[in-house]
Amino acid sequence: MKAFALVSAPFHIICLSEAIDYFKINELHIVFHADENTEASRQMRSVLENLKNVKKTIHFLEPSYLYKKSLEDRIGYYGDVLSKIDRNSFQYVFFSDFRVQWQKDLIDGFQKSKRIMLDDGSITLAFIHFHLPNNAFFALPNFGTSARRQYAEDIKLNYGIVPQSDSDIDLFTIFYREKVTGKKVFPNTLAKLHRQYTNIDKSTEVIIGAKIVDRGFCDKTEYLQMLDKINSNCKGKIIYFPHRGESADHQSEIKSTFPQFEFIAPSTSIELWLLMQQHPPATFHGYVSTAFFIINMCFPQITLKCYRPSDRVINNMQDIKVYGSTLYNYSQVTRLFYSKLPKSVELIQL
Prior knowledge:
This protein is an alpha/beta fold. It is 36% helix and 19% strand. The protein has 13 helices and 13 strands. It has a seven-stranded parallel sheet, with helices on both faces. Strands 10-9-8-11-12-13 form a six-stranded parallel sheet, with helices on both faces. The longest helix has 14 residues, at 220-233. The model has no long low-confidence stretch (mean pLDDT 92).
């Protein structure tokens, strides 16, 4: 089987690796949205190049070309990818983010392939609970005038990009136990990540960093207060594993406030980091994130403690501009994420 895949984050690549086996893919054309010059991107590319049992081609999409150019240049940049391949030869098209235009456009360029969405982390829960009940796969905000949007559609026609019905798109997801109506759900059990350890390090604990200050979900003071609460609950060595989206300034402030924390450079995902450990830390702490769902599935010996901010902080999230969807606000999805945490995760109210 031959597949076309769109990825831009470490967890996309983990899911793609699982999809290769599940759907029996032996040839893969990967469109990798990343800055080639960063260490994180080089690490992700290395993982892509080492995918087993599949012939692969990797095509980089530089972020600067997608967001800072004219419509002609921007659409042409990814439209050229379609012009250089035989689209009718692909049985599957995998994409990973229902919140971005370029992914919608690229999958709309395939009329005969089966289109399947991989997980983009826990935001898949928002898709299941807010998009599907509204019979909407993509619900992207409109930008610019109606004339400009029509002009964009006209440009896309030159590359064979034609809006299609979302009805034939299915899911390959770790959240396969969620009730889903009208879509086929293929279970992603993350089989390649599962591991049992002979021993775990009870003297070391990990804090999973979150991008919530950079996103405006809370201010620096509130985030540092959360870290202080976590610090008071830890008994030994503490490792801070930053989110790859946490700014350098934010990390510097954490380092100066908590000099006892040992920082790990986020050049790989926390799941792949865990897979490489012989004796991993026994306990992980943090704000709700995809990592809690994955670690619970794949590394059951590890204790998980998730910290919930105050209702005031969560309520204030409803006023923050939402990325890539018109069907929910951040207050709603944050409450959803906490409500869906596995029962084995200890929930601690701040």
